[in-house]
Amino acid sequence: MGAFSDGLARGRHEFPKNAKNSFVFMCFFSQFTFFSLTYVFFYYIVYPIKHFYGKQVWKLKSLTFSGGIHPLAEQDWKAATKASPLRVFAPASVVIPMRQHLGRPCAPCVKPGDEVLLGQMIGEPASPRDVPVHASVSGKVVAVEERPHVTAGMMLAVVIENDGQDKPDPSIQPRSAAEVEALRPEQLRDIIRDAGIVGMGGAEFPTHLKLDVKGKVDYLLINGAECEPSLTGDHRQMLENGDLVVKGAVLLMRACGAKECVIGIEGKPDAAEAIQKAAEGAREVRVLQLKVKYPQGAEKMLIASVTGRKVPAGGLPAAVGCVVDNVSTAVAVAEAVYEGAPLTRRSVTVNGAVGQPGNLLLRIGTTFRDAVNFCGGFVGTPQKIISGGPMMGTAVAEPDVPVTKGGSGITVFNQITDPVTVEGNCLRCGRCVEACPLQLTPQAISEAYLAERLDLCGELRADLCMKCGCCTFVCPAKRHLSQTVDLAKRALAAQGRR
Ligand code: SF4
Ligand code: SF4
User: Fold this and answer.
1) Ligand 1 atom closest to Cα of residue 445
2) CATH architecture of 84-168+343-414
3) Fold adopted by 58-78+173-339
4) Do residues 482 and 469 touch, judged by C-beta distance below 8 A?
5) pLDDT by residue (tens digit) across 299-348?
């Protein structure tokens, strides 16, 4: 009989000394066994699963951002175009503005009568911080003159009559995989700059500047959210050109020195699956399926959802170790580095009051009118034409403005789809404050602006507004909040207050 059972057999309440030692030993042994088994379980079972299936789409239902809205399915219009493949369209002539990036306009380096080739530089950048502009068709320059522009009113543009032959510029030379592998980060950034690549999500910020980060970069985030209602061009890019998205992401990582890449996709399980498949050979690229919520694709919201980090007010993503680029930008980078091709075309969703809504692969400089005519023409009388989507887009002055590098969509409203609304009095319901993803107070800013209290607008940080439109969307009194806050922001900028 052992010491422990011996003590029990004698009916004592106290264990003999050697039994106590055995008990302590058993406790120690059982704890040791428990921790050992836990270790073995995690090391030999959980870790290999994570390692081998690490490329699986992460479905994080809890990671998102505060504020924002959930547009109803019938309000987002995506159903009309999301199944429409990208159709190639090249018009009879293109109008290519000399300013298509955040910076100084280019100087035209061609004149009327010149023959130009597809991909030939036609606008020289003002400095190494700016990017050049290239011909998006081959043909004859018929004018170099001021033409309507999406945001700049009138802008100097090169008008080219398309000869329909797409004769390429001799500078377009593909690189072998070995040549691409040997490129250093600064060489990659130079190629990206010379190809005229800018943020194609709408910001048009030169991509090479964004990649030239001085500090440490933990994450490159590829923005595949495309949360804006009506737009589905990025969705189609991910479905149809997933390999280019992943190749571009890997090049962007190398160019900015990021350790890891996360491709964030809002909903769109088919796109997430396609990208996951394309990323099978790229260990450092992960796919993250995000919650459907507007504006999930705004840079700061995406960073918050994916990393939990908060970009400081007025700061850049680099301040929290992140660089964010759009899906279409990644495609353009892959084409520039592997094919030597400059940015001359982009995906554009034509949606709303048009005959056949769809997704087009358009030459830069195609006018809105030509693109809409290719999609069956206007339905009814166009009341409002927007470059981009209905929430963050910019209403254009006329249909003859050309598509620029940052133009992701053409959304058309007629008198039925955009009925005139009358502003009511504020009900003090607070919904606009709840919806603002940046925790601003839209009604207070709006009131301050209308009362000509610009100092108060500054105190309420109107300068931080990203014009997402959530406040206007939720307002039961139909107040034009985002528009007024934007006016306050512009007035502050004009006075150099922020
Ligand atoms: S105030 Fe600006 S950032 Fe806030 S909800 Fe309105 S438009 Fe969006
Ligand atoms: S949502 Fe509209 S009605 Fe409600 S507090 Fe804001 S401005 Fe006023």
Assistant:
1) 1
2) Roll (3.10)
3) Rossmann fold (3.40.50)
4) yes
5) 999 999 999 899 998 888 999 999 999 999 999 999 999 999 999 999 99
